[in-house]
Structure formats: C-alpha cells, structure tokens
Amino acid sequence: MGVAASIAIYKACEIVRRLQDESFSVTVVMTEEAKELIRPVVFQSLSGNRVYGSLFGDPDVWEIEHVSLAEKCDLILVAPATANIIGKIAGGICDDLLTCLICATRRPVVICPAMNESMYRNAIVQENIRKLKSHGYKFVEPIKGRLACGKVGMGCLAEVETIVKEVKRIL
User: Fold this and answer.
1) Which DSSP string corresponds to 72-128?
2) Triad 59, 80, 152: Cα angle to 5°
3) Average pLDDT in the 46-50 region?
4) Burial 11-40 (b: 16+ CB within 10 A, else e)
5) For the chain, how big is the Rg over CA atoms in Å?
C-alpha cells in the first residue's frame, strides 16, 4: 500500500486494518512527505510489517527494494494519492521508492485520489488520470465531502469500505 502526503492519510490507517480483517497482508510504502504527517511506526504497528520509505536507505539484506517489493506484491493500492503522485506516475517519474515500485510492477495498481476539489478538477490532473486509466491503472474515485480547506467539494478519499471492496474485487 502506497501512502502519499494528503490530509486523508488518517484514513489509510483504517484501510490497513480493514484489509487485514479481510486476511490480506499489508506492507506500507510511504513517500518522504507522508512521513511528515504520520510517522512510519504507526503503519508498522497497524500492519505488523516493516514500513518502507527511502529509496536509498540501508537495507537489512541486499536487495533492490522497489524490484523486490514489485515482485512480492499481488496488488499496489495508493491511498491517499495526491495530484503530485498521480502526475509522477503518469509522467513515468521515478524519484522515490513508491514511484519506482509502481513503475517496476506488473501487478494491478489501484489509485485513490484525495485532494482539494480545485486540484482534482484541474485539467492536467484529469488528463493524467485519463492517461493512467488508458494504461490499465484502476481508480477508486474521490467523493464529495468536507475538504481540508473547510469547504465542501469533490476530492475526499473514497469511503474505506469502497476501497477495500475494490481491492477484493480485483484480487
């Protein structure tokens, strides 16, 4: 499960729990920015697995982590997915562990956007989403709700149950 830096990151904790309730093993890969919002130890405690986040960290054993993780997983779920991470994936930019992992995988990738409505409706963000969909990436669309700015609009992370249901459907 990839976790990017969105205020909706708190819902990622519940997604980990719900996936475990469905007997899925979850390994979390966080962007460096996401670590500014929630410490990796939270996801480690929830998942019971090591949390990955640094492209050039000191490995416990020698392996190319993004390739190794890409081969071990059955699916990559990115929740929450920011405009930034969506843009990097669409552009083939691999400058962190999560984007390298996604580029290296042959498994299904499910992206769950979470951002301000203005950002979500931005023409370039929508073009990036269409591009990724055309390449087989799956999306769980955001919903209307109270955004971090205090306004109500489209861009809230989909309901946890909806995301878990989509993962189960694909797997």
Assistant:
1) H-S-EEEEEE-HHHHHHHHHT---SHHHHHHHH--S-EEEEE---HHHHT-HHHHHH
2) 155
3) 96
4) bbbebbebbeeeebebbbbbbebbbebbeb
5) 15
Q: Is 149 a catalytic residue?
A: yes
**Does the pLDDT of residue 45 top 90, yes or no?**
yes
Residue type (1 letter), 52? Y
Assign residue 135 the CATH number of its domain: 3.40.50.1950
Count Cβ atoms below 10 Å from residue 110 Cβ, excluding itself.
22
Task: Count up the domains in the chain and report the number.
Answer: 1
- Domain with 143, as residue range(s), is 2-170
Catalytic choice (13, 94, 103, 149) = 149
Q: Can you tell me the mean pLDDT for 162-166?
A: 98
